[in-house]
Structures are given as C-alpha cells and as structure tokens.
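Sanity check record (used in CI):
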Amino acid sequence: MGKDPEYTVPVERVPYYAIKIYPVIMGTFGGVKTTKQFEVLTDGGQVIKNLFATGETANKVIYNHVYMSGSSVQFALTSGRIAGEVAAKQL
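Expected output for Fumarate reductase:
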C-alpha cells in the first residue's frame, strides 16, 4: 500500500492500548480550582473528598501559557491518568 516500512513494525508486547481521537476546537477558559492531583477545591481552598476534575474542566493551567494545537487531548489524557491514580489510592 506504499507505507514506509519504518512505521509498519509489528506490535509484539502486551498489553495493547488504543483510543480514538477526534480533533475538535474547544476549550474552557477558567475551569474549577484543583490540587496538583486534580482534586476539586472549594472556594475556601479545601479539598472536596472523592471529587476530581480533569481535562477541559480543569484546564486553567495551560491556557495563555502554551500554543494550544492538540494540547487539550494531551492534558485530558495526562490529568485523567493522574486523577485516576490518586482516586485508586483513596479506595
């Protein structure tokens, strides 16, 4: 099919992970306040137990600081992973 052999190598180690990503234009300029572990904070700065905000709902940390092309996807994946790890430790 004319594909470069450098990029058509077999995947031989498990587990495999795959996600569908659909490019869209969106953004939340603000978001809710969170800790570095994405735990949601009250107006008074107290952690709301078992409530996490990730991705666009907690996106205040990157807008106006970086070029935004594709960064929403990266931030959603990264913040979701961090929040998931913290939530799992609290079980």
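The helical segments are 71-89. If this sentence no longer matches the regenerated tokens, the check is flagged for review.
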